[in-house]
Amino acid sequence: MADSIVMTKAEREAFLADLHTGIVAIPEDGRGPLTVPIWYRVDDNGDVLMLTPADSRKARLCEVGTRISLCAQDESMPPKYTSVEGPVVALDEGTVAEATTMAVRYLGDEIGAAYIEATRGDGGAHDELLIRMRPERWFSGDFAKRF
Length: 147
Prior knowledge:
This protein is of the alpha+beta class.
């Protein structure tokens, strides 16, 4: 039996890059952090990319430099999780290409394409914000290491 459930650097990076719905936590003055589910992906540089409607509460709370957290988990038994925390390093206009990449990642080719057609059928830009967060602190656990 292992002494620690902590994932190695390679394990936690692979887990985060795998397909999970993330839970993002964004600080909000005078309240607890806004904590909501979000689709995300990890780019080739290791940054976490998230899309959100530009008029959403998430978008209004994020500024470059804001420190946010994202947790991804596998609820099957024994559970695993990876949580990252770091600054927002860029806020960009979401593109149809990025929205398509995200939709196909989560929904597959056919349903992802249908989702994009239904939400962006005119081919125009959908007002979304691309949030780029650079992980600086990692927390992880793989409870299977206990067995």
